[in-house]
Amino acid sequence: SIHTKKYFHSIGTQKTATVSVPDCSEKFHVYALEWNEETITVLVDNKPYFTFKNEHTGNDAWPFDKPFHLLLNIAVGGSWGGQKGVDEKVFPQKMWIDYVRVYQ
What we know:
The protein is mainly β. It is built from no helices and three strands.
């Protein structure tokens, strides 16, 4: 999903897509994000499944021409995933990352 002031789930305008990765917990996969001045494309194992295009309508739709940082985490709880509570018995959890590459 891409979240901007113009495109956000709480106002019903979210831009998103889904992809099935049946063996995601059994082996490593390559998750990629290709970001340039015109598009942001998300790929799994080199196959694109979502592209967000720059509409050139301003910062509310495309704030991605400024510096950003990368955050990799296991998100738990909150107002979406935690609406019905969190089963504490599933912890601790691990997220294994083989490598992270950043190209410019």
